[in-house]
Amino acid sequence: MNTDSFPRYYPPEEHRGFPFPRHFAPKSPIHYSADSDAAFQISRSSRKTVSQIMVRGRDACWEHCVLVDATKQKVRCNYCQREFSGGVYRMKFHLAQIKNKDIVPCTEVPTDVRDHILSILETPKKQKTPKKPKVDKAALANGQQISSSASGEFHPTRVSNGQIGSTSPSLLFLCPSPTSQEPVDDVQKQKQDLADKTVAVFFFRNSIPFSAARSIYYREMVDAVSECGGNYKAPSYEVLKSMLEKVKSDIHDRYKKYRDEWKETGCTILCESWSDGRNKSLVIFSVTYPNGTQFLKSVDVSGHEDDTTYLFELLESVVLEVGVEDVVQIITDTSSSYIYAGRLLMGKYTSLFWSPCASDCINKMLEDIGKQEWVCIVLEEARTITNFIGSHGWTLSMMRKFDGGRELVRAKINRFVTNFLNLRSIVIQEDNIKHMFSHPEWVSSASSRRPEAQAVKSLLYVERFWQHAQEVVTIAEPLVKILRIVDGDIPAMGYIYEGIESAKIAIKTYYKGIEEKYMPIWDIIERRWSMQLHSSLHAAAASLNPSIFYNPDFKIDLRMRNGFQETMLRMASTHDDKMEITKEHPVYVTAQGALGSDFAIMGRTLNAPGDWWAGYGYEIPTLQRYALRILSQPCSSHWCCWNWSTFESIHAKKHSRTEPEKFDDLVFVHCNLWLQSISQNRDAKCKPIVFDEIDVSSEWPTELESPAPILDDSLLDSLPLNVEVVSEL
């Protein structure tokens, strides 16, 4: 039979290269090539592989990561080399710098790549075209044919002349008629583009930083507007001004929910001071607890920085405002005036502790080590290398070809930590740096002939530099690990004591127990630790941390035991509580009852100290209550990067305003919304800390969070006079 007279069938794209279902098999011959016949033999596994390759090829994210393990869908970031399981979808959150569950934002991703991936995540996915229903053979046998509606759906219809319809492929496999879907998509895309451009114009015209688009409030705003539909009208200037009091009330309501938790966990008052070095001194007060931090107020203390009585009264007023019964400690810096004011406060309120900022003290340890002559020389030589590479664009670009995308400089951490981390990066990248400076591309460049380039290259081959650099990194890293633990708003009280002891042991081990080598470093640590940082509260927290107390390798010294006793005597508010603690403490020491169960033993290292006490301390409820209050506190106030220039400007403007209380309201709302966004972006689940597993090269809180944004107070112009003032707490 001559088949050329039959109409040729071109199957839909999704069916090409695969056998037809039986109920779609055409009764007339269909022309296809030998290549098509070969395609029919593709196995299921082959099809899956091809499909995976096609998906990878279409996803733009694959340009910025590589597949490490196909079975586990593990991918590695091209910029920071961090690996994730779960495929390219989770990698998008990493590259877009969005914290999602346990995904750590990438700190090395270029800005244009981050924005591109972020736009992909924010673009709504198109709805899939509904699958075509199967054709009913019985319907065909009854004389029905397939027709398509404008919506793309197929309906069996009777042939108009009453005859049984033809069963030729041209009728059985009619392609859907052109639908309105494509024009609708085009229209929707045009609307989306117009909306994006309108938002961008608003940003440009009002000098709004692009980083505001990553704010949780930006997304909440857009979602709320979308919920209102097309009838939503944007608030006017007057409506926005009237919202200040409502938002402030919402903030108070939110924090009232947490105040009930303070009865169990207690809270810490943070007192952070700043001076411009001339005649301006400011103090910011905030209260922190396991679920977040609340800004209280800022105070201009210019002229009273060294007035112990004035500072004592100021600290006392804040304690009374929060509630003496809820405050476990107040943290300040280590200047002499604050030390004396803190002692006066402890003398008056026996259940309260004053503690120095652990970050401040450890920074000063690093500063003292950096003043050692040989250390100072090494750090200065390291700065010569980093300054040269970082200050020349072409040199920096070339260095990135050799360093695997890892930055040599960490700029967003404080000066003393940055010095040691930069030196550590140089030591790690020694081979790569030497390779770059000896590479033909560098040697033939004009940059290589600069005098400073020659000086850097000569330094790279000085053996003394590398030996001393390695030594400095080794003795400083244990202290940097402690700083990494306490330099955050997590409850780290139970780890500071062990951290100091572990650092001293690590330094002694490096010097193989030779006293004349390790004792100068020990003396620096001990001087700051004993005179400033050590507190009985730190000792009690270590005693109540099960991962430390039950560790046979950790020595419970006399200072630690006495610190526990002193802390319990101060905190126990009644004679009955003291009696109960006396009875219950031996149960904890000997791990009796639930404390000695298999789950409790495993939980000593698997659970955070506070969670362990909450889960297994129910048989000794009085000691459990005090343990939870102690272990729920932080050790540092430096995790929060306040924009001090903002507060300096605030106090300058405040004196010129007729309604300073409205100005205080705006500052209160502004700062607390920022703090809330930080809390919401962080993992609320506290995890146990293992000193040896701390990675100082990972992101620090001060790197992950931007400083508090600059306050725009223009909306306070012509504020309504009848706005009622609500108390701060």
Descriptive report:
This protein is an alpha+beta fold and about 725 residues long. The longest helix is centred in the first third of the chain and has 25 residues, at about 180-205. The radius of gyration is 34 Å and the shape is globular.
Q: Report helical residue fraction.
A: 40-55%
In terms of DSSP E residues, the strand content is 5-15%
Shape: globular
Radius of gyration: 34 Å
Question: Numbering strands along the chain, what is their spatial order in the largest sheet?
Answer: 8-7-6-9-10
Through-space gap between termini:
94 Å
Count of helices?
A: 32
Catalogue the unreliable spans.
1-57, 135-180, 718-729
What structural class results from the helix and strand content? alpha+beta
- Total strand segments: 10
Question: Looking at the chains present, what oligomeric state does this protein adopt?
Answer: single chain
What is the overall pLDDT average?
Answer: 78
Largest sheet: 5 strands, mixed
